[in-house]
């Protein structure tokens, strides 16, 4: 039960770290998350987690269909907790449910990237995102070798034109070889890791240690760059729910990576490194 409590508390902490939803949902989620942390009795209440799932569902409906992917997964996870806490062996039920949720979520991710999105495998997604999304500016400069002037020029070159308009003399987009290599590694690396996680999660208990290693690697690497810490926290909590209570070291590793993702989200490490090497 101690490990189950850790899973529930980290889920509550994730709710508090990233408040979500409109004014009539956010206070409810904050109150429920705080109540879960303050009281062990409420922490294990099925009704509390059902209320969390309902509040998140209302948040999704209010922003339909534009809610981030991990908000849907968090709603499913809160509902899974509520149902598991009504079972005789909540720990086993939650472990099985989390494995299937992660496995199917990653199957959908791979299907979307590798089959349904032609602009992903040809690397256009990362090549454009690294140049145009302000959240990736410092990473593009640090790893891709761009200067501030290059970034500004590229954004101007990629700015959308009125419908049907074309420039007679389009500007040249600056893409150093390092940036192209980074986009290629990011594209194929994420597809390979997501495929591996999906396969190992759905393989069952035969691949227990491998699936934990794959999920921890995915979260430790992906969320060092991707600015969606909430997604990483949900995945790590769900992975922790599958750990055998006898494997204390593995549970502690999940907690450590959870904290690392918090570090990634709150400390501008690419900018600090960029300043250090200039």
Features:
278 residues; mainly alpha; 15 helices; 74% helix; 0% strand; globular
Characterise the protein shown here.
The protein is mostly helical. It folds into two domains: 86 residues; 172 residues, no CATH class. The chain is built from 15 helices and no strands. α9 crosses α15. The model has no long low-confidence stretch (mean pLDDT 94).
Strand content: under 5%
Q: Pairing-aware structural class of the strands and helices?
A: mainly alpha
Helix residue percentage: over 70%
Order of helices and strands: HHHHHHHHHHHHHHH
The low-confidence parts are none
Task: Note the overall shape.
Answer: globular
Average pLDDT across residues? 94
| Number of domains as seen in the coordinates | 2
Quaternary structure annotation: single chain
Number of helices: 15
- According to DSSP, the number of beta strands is 0
Main beta-sheet annotation: none
Radius of gyration: 21 Å
Distance from first to last alpha carbon: 50 Å
């Amino acid at each position: 039960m101690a490990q189950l409590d850790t899973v529930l508390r980290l889920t509550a902490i994730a709710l508090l770290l990233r408040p979500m939803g409109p004014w009539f949902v956010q206070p409810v989620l904050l109150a429920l998350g705080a109540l879960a942390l303050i009281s062990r009795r409420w922490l294990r209440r099925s009704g509390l987690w059902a209320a969390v799932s309902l509040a998140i569902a209302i948040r999704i409906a209010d922003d339909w269909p534009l809610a981030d992917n991990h908000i849907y997964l968090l709603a499913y996870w809160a509902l899974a907790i509520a149902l598991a806490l009504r079972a005789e062996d909540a720990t086993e039920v939650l472990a099985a449910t989390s494995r299937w949720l992660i496995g199917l979520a990653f199957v959908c991710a791979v299907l979307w990237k590798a089959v349904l999105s032609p602009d992903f495998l040809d690397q256009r997604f990362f090549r454009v995102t690294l140049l145009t999304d302000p959240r990736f500016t410092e990473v593009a400069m640090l790893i891709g070798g761009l200067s501030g002037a290059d970034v500004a020029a590229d954004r101007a070159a990629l700015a959308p034109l009125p419908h049907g308009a074309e420039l007679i003399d389009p500007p040249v987009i600056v893409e150093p070889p390092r940036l192209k290599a980074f986009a290629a590694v990011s594209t194929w690396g994420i597809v390979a890791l997501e495929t591996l996680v999906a396969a190992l999660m759905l393989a069952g208990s035969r691949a227990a240690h491998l699936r934990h290693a794959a999920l921890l690697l995915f979260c430790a690497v992906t969320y060092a760059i991707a600015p969606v810490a909430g997604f990483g926290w949900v995945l790590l909590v769900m992975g922790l729910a599958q750990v055998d209570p006898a494997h204390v070291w593995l549970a502690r590793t999940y907690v450590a990576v959870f904290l690392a993702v918090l570090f990634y989200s709150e400390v501008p490490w690419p900018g600090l490194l960029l300043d250090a090497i200039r």
